[in-house]
Amino acid sequence: MSLNENNASELELQHVHNVYENIASHFSETRQKPWPNVVKFLSKSKPGAIVLDVGCGNAKYFTNTSDIFQLGCDRSTQLAQICKNHNYQVFNCDCLQLPIRSNCIDLCISIAVLHHLATNDRRLKALKEINRVLVVGGQALVYVWAKEQCRNQNLSTYLKQGKVNKPKAESTPELNKEFHVESIDVNLPIHKNRSSFVHNDLLVPWKLNQKKEQQNESKTHLRYYHVFEEFELKLLCEQMYNCKVIDYYYDQGNWCVIFEKITI
């Protein structure tokens, strides 16, 4: 797959941003339970800390703690509105250009966001933006989907859900079928949900049930993902001269990194 800055941006627009605008409500309903290790990381915040969630979705990692200032941002206007309905401080922006001054965030999380960026340069740029806004000594936690969904003979939550919720009839496109992305000269394989990953760059179906008077129809949206090899995320972070990797681990089908800003 050959992507440059322009067609990568168009791919993300069609198969990330537009999709989340269409599935926001349904997506939010399925994203209620916080990951324990993310909660553990956020518990390090001290009174008066400024905590940022980049790609906050429905703000499920916001807490009721009143002694810190919690801020979230998301590209999706629909998801941001869901957050605002709960009185969370959330605004719209692209993770490649955070409208936040440098050196002011104490803790930052970005959970399941970076894997929606279509080139290595764009993924590194997003990490640099997170590092830029951190104070010296501030830390960030980033989660991305791992290509490896079975580790030490343990299935990830993603694969386990497939075994529990086997559909009677599989109506999503078959694995390895290629989809030509509109107005971009790129073909991407369509992943079969709840199965092991074969490709690094792929489209993952999201089946949206539309319960309206207009007959019970269901529509499948295709979301772009880049799933990460074992040390890929760590190596990206190590390209930033002014931060150091504090921890790198695997958590339920995700590669996760904690890094700290060490100098301006």
Largest sheet: 7 strands, mixed
Terminal residue distance:
36 Å
Question: Based on DSSP secondary structure assignment, what is the total number of beta strands?
Answer: 13
Total helical segments: 6
Mean pLDDT level: 92
Q: Using only CA atoms, what is the Rg?
A: 18 Å
- SSE pattern: HHEEHEEHEEEHEEEEHEE
Brief summary of the model shown:
The chain is 26% helix and 30% strand. It has helices at residues 5-29, 36-42, 77-85, 120-133, 157-164, 232-237, and strands at 50-54, 69-74, 90-92, 105-111, 134-145, 150-151, 154-155, 178-180, 187-189, 201-210, 217-226, 243-251, 254-261.
SSE layout:
Layout: H1 5-29, H2 36-42, E1 50-54, E2 69-74, H3 77-85, E3 90-92, E4 105-111, H4 120-133, E5 134-145, E6 150-151, E7 154-155, H5 157-164, E8 178-180, E9 187-189, E10 201-210, E11 217-226, H6 232-237, E12 243-251, E13 254-261
Parallel strand pairs: 1-2, 1-4, 2-3, 4-5
Antiparallel strand pairs: 5-13, 6-7, 8-9, 10-11, 12-13
Explained architecture:
It is built from six helices and 13 strands. The chain is of the alpha/beta class and 264 residues long. The strands form four sheets. It has a seven-stranded mixed sheet with strand order 3-2-1-4-5-13-12. Strand 4, helix 4 and strand 5 form a beta-alpha-beta unit. Helix 1 packs parallel to helix 3. About 3% of the residues have low confidence.
Features:
alpha/beta; 7-stranded mixed sheet; 6 helices
